[in-house]
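tool=predict chain=A
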Amino acid sequence: MRFALAESFSKTAPLPLLLDDITVNADADRLPRLAQMIATVAETHQVLVFSCQDRMVELLQQADPLARVITLPGHAAGTGTARMGAVS
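tool=predict ok
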């Protein structure tokens, strides 16, 4: 739905799409298909995906080997984990 809305609003120029942890509640078996869909949208739009899930970052890299991955300093209180940003 978000992709269709972005496509609708970008009739005159491609818009960037910012996705923040959209896979948190997604079924694990749907993640590869979602990663492929994001890679397809990234062919015509700038897509920034923020995810705390290493698996999603791996799937995005498989779907688009040219995607850039930026590791951000950890922000989660007490966890010390880094959030991953996949940029395509």
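Residues 16 and 75 are 24 Å apart (CA to CA). Strands lie at 17-20, 47-51, 68-71, 84-87.
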